[in-house]
């Protein structure tokens, strides 16, 4: 696709649809709801009785798992492939039909039910990229239980925090995940998390995988009988299970909680409903991702992230498509041609990945020689999300594949793109560096700090006028007030995205980065607050600051600066290196390997305002070599001057 100045506001199919979605949301979304099978069809779309907490399809009833599974069987498509499980780390490929998946889900739903898990109960899922993830998630949906998937790269403490917030009746896990260089044992982390958590979990169901050191018995023994949890083997439990039928739930009932990083160390439990979610995702498959029944979508993310929830699991199954479940990496399993091999072998129509993965591939295979080895003629579009798609990478991959490259911008909270090129509806001309146009249902505005709209082309806070469309978060788990305080209070009548950006005169949306302390490392959203908490828990640390610096591969990387407690002696260079290693290990063992926390330095003091706020933004600008502003409220300029060489060199 070439660059063009043709305006989005020109009379296009997109413009008509977009306008209608905002002028007549009731009609627009009721019409979209026809794509879903309801046990009681909704007569209304939006319920604003409890505004600013909105609900969609208040009188509709349905079941998400039935829409993903049974419905396709009833239509005679049971033999169609639902999941292609392609494990690059094991070298295996398994095709699972809709009929087979339905059977597995119904049986596992029976296991959960036999363990006393019912509608509204929570189930924490801590699984690698194997079909059990789909089975467990859909089994919860089938019986009206609320799942909360925790990404396997998070360590025990992060898992424990989520257990205490969600208060699950059960945890579903496995022996572990396979990374290119090592096996990641899950059971020690689960045992530690269960012991750390105050909440007592009823059942822990473990899928055994070959080649892992810790057995279910080891993990059970490590925890002892103090927690009262019952540990069960997945296969044994399933063998004796009575399949469970889907239960009818209200469209407004919660389907899942997905924790995401906020500005503090305490994660936010984003709540998604059944009905609005199903309607919105089905709409996006046709109109954005351009994948329909029998066609194949390959989303190279992880089920632990929102992209995985929406586009590895729910959306493709809702529309009767085939989803690729890829257990592997973009590079190293075995090489930078892995995505192209998968796309060619499985006839992938749309491929969805993160810009960092594309940069990793480019680094290993700059000429794209490995792509040329595969027949990618089925591939129609490449989608990228998770972080800003830099124009350089966008140009490189577009030239290499010769297909449109669609940047799509969204967040855990929204569940589907706020801005994208709606290629399924109508491909709009591309502007490099822009995620194109607001998606139907999203009234996007750029506001200044005082909440006033800014002129076209001016950067400001990206805000969404309420109500948000269906499929977006309904609240934060158990804490409506935190939802209101975190998102709805900055600008009256708007949801604050936490991102900054601009809209140009043609209506194109440009997203530049976060306005808060959330950072994005290799497409993984992390809170600097959580990293600081991990550093601060080290006995030698008096105070610390973590900032996100620009990184050519991972978009951002975390850098930590710590001030030691007075009296802590560091014994020469060797002692300093040992301390720094200790600090890195503290982050790895509390937050997880995924933080990829390597850069840390000991400093004399941290620059602060007179009210004690650490000048993280100024530090970041200095470290990134950007022009920086020093607030007039700085307490002591000499602290910043002394820090400057450390910020420049990283040590
Ligand atoms: N379970 C356990 N550990 C995990 C993990 C998981 N699911 N995912 C990552 N990790 C670990 C890795 O093993 C690594 O550990 P190490 O320090 O022992 O090597 C650490 O976390 C960092 O991993 P990663 O972020 O994968 O970095 P990398 O340098 O190994 O690979 C990329 C770089 C770009 C290839 C990789 O980050 C990537 O594939 N990114 C795409 C992310 C993505 O798709 N995000 C979804 C957003 S839509
Ligand atoms: P997550 O909730 O983990 O999906 O992270 C959401 C955040 O990632 C957003 O608020 C953005 O800061 C960033 N992000 C995701 N996709 C994009 C994109 N296409 N362009 C720019 N930033 C993005």
UniProtKB/TrEMBL annotation:
Location of the AMP-binding enzyme C-terminal domain: 531-613
Recorded superkingdom: Bacteria
Domain AMP-dependent synthetase/ligase as annotated: residue spans: 74-465
Gene3D superfamilies in UniProt: 3.30.300.30, N-terminal domain of ligase-like (3.40.50.12780)
SUPFAM superfamilies attached to this UniProt entry: Acetyl-CoA synthetase-like (SSF56801)
One Pfam match: ACAS_N
Ranges for domain Acetyl-coenzyme A synthetase N-terminal: 14-68
Family, as annotated: Belongs to the ATP-dependent AMP-binding enzyme family.
Protein's recorded name: AMP-binding protein
Organism: Citricoccus nitrophenolicus
Species classification: Bacteria, Bacillati, Actinomycetota, Actinomycetes, Micrococcales
